[in-house]
Amino acid sequence: MSHEPIPTADGRRRVTELIRDARACLLTTTAVDGRLVSRPMVLPAAEFDGDLWFFAYADSAKIRQIRVNPQVNVGLFDQRQHAWVSMAGTAQEGWERGRAERLWHPQLETWFPDGPDTPGLTLLKVHAGPAEYWAAGENHQVSY
Q1: What pLDDT is stored for residue 73 in this prediction?
Q2: Is residue 2 assigned to a domain?
Q3: Residue 26 falls within a domain, yes or no?
């Protein structure tokens, strides 16, 4: 397996493909006491353009944690291709009604029963940083 960086455009294209096929991930933040905390998150069906978007409650622990330390990691698994992506990034919270409506899908109603009108709902944006992916016969680092 290769551990060397591949051309940026090729690596980004491959990471984008893997992210597009993943529907869930683990988001890792840093707690106030320094512990790493991971939790499952649903990825809205949207084209990956260097930013990942998630829905969250504005008063949740993950939002409080990124307000203190915005450095996060997102781990994704594409079951179809048996591939993993680990992406470091910088997170920020902010509500954008139009974006929320574009990103919304019914699977999210399990956690946010009133859809985009759920009280306390916010968006979490993770801007991609360095990523690494593993797939059959592949192991590459990608920079954003």
Answers
A1: 97
A2: no
A3: yes
Quick check: helix, strand or coil at residue 140?
strand
The answer to whether 118 and 104 are in contact (CB under 8 A) is no
Residue 76 is part of a domain; what is its CATH number?
2.30.110.10
**Interval 97-124: pLDDT, tens:** 999 999 998 889 999 999 999 999 999 9
Is 82 a domain residue? yes
Give domain status of residue 33, yes or no: yes
In the chain, the number of structural domains is 1
Closest CA to 62 of 86, 41, 83, 89: 41
Closest by alpha carbon to 93, among 59, 117, 119? 59
The residues pairing with 84 across neighbouring beta strands, listed in sequence order, are 77, 134
Domain that residue 131 falls in: 8-142
The DSSP letter of residue 117 is: G
DSSP 11-37: HHHHHHHHHHH--EEEEEEE-TTS-EE
- In this predicted model, what pLDDT tens digit does every residue of 40-74 receive, in sequence order? 998 877 677 889 999 999 999 999 999 999 999 99
Q: What pTM was estimated for this model as a whole? A: 0.84
CA 15/CA 8 separation, integer angstroms: 10
